[in-house]
Amino acid sequence: MSPYFAVIKRDLLLSYRQGADLVMVLAFFLIASALFPLAVGPDPVILGRIASGIIWVLALLSVMLSLDRIFHNDYDDGALEQMEISPQSFYLIILAKIIAHWITTGIPLIILSPIIAIMLNLDNDAFITMILSLAIGTPILSLIGAIGAALSLGARRAGLLVAMLVLPLYIQILIFAISAIDASINNFPVRPHLLFLAAILAAALPLAPLAAAASIRQAFE
Description:
Oligomer: single chain
Structural class: mainly alpha
Number of strands: 0
């Protein structure tokens, strides 16, 4: 497994060196969340009611901002093609790159989310559910986003194409995640919603890298 850990380490190092991309994602998450109290008013009751939706929509959009860097830079400089023709499993290489993307994007968003939740007056009882939903849901965003990023390789206006491809697939994740948080606030069972998210993750984990690898091979042709 050392070649695949090397891919993860390489992508983490590149992300660290190109820190502006990560800063942009986190800055968008923070600044956009600060705009909602200005738009809907400072009433803590109203903010608390919509906090779960705000946090998840902004997390989704923040992940979308970073999807280009999963494959596009390596595609442009030829590194991705070298990975494809190497003797290592291309499927596992793609999975390693998706894991690296989640580490550099999903985990920082999970860490920042309690700050946004406090600012938006999210019910304290829903904090653990919110973090669990993000911990399960953000890997799905990276997995599905990788398919969109792979399909858009070599395309003009790739960012717009990725958004059109992945947004319809993100809707069910948004529904189950927000439903879990709202259920926690209203003292309803949370487990069914989180189990649905976990089921989507269990399906996406083996299938998304397979679809992304096939799309990348198609782009090379």
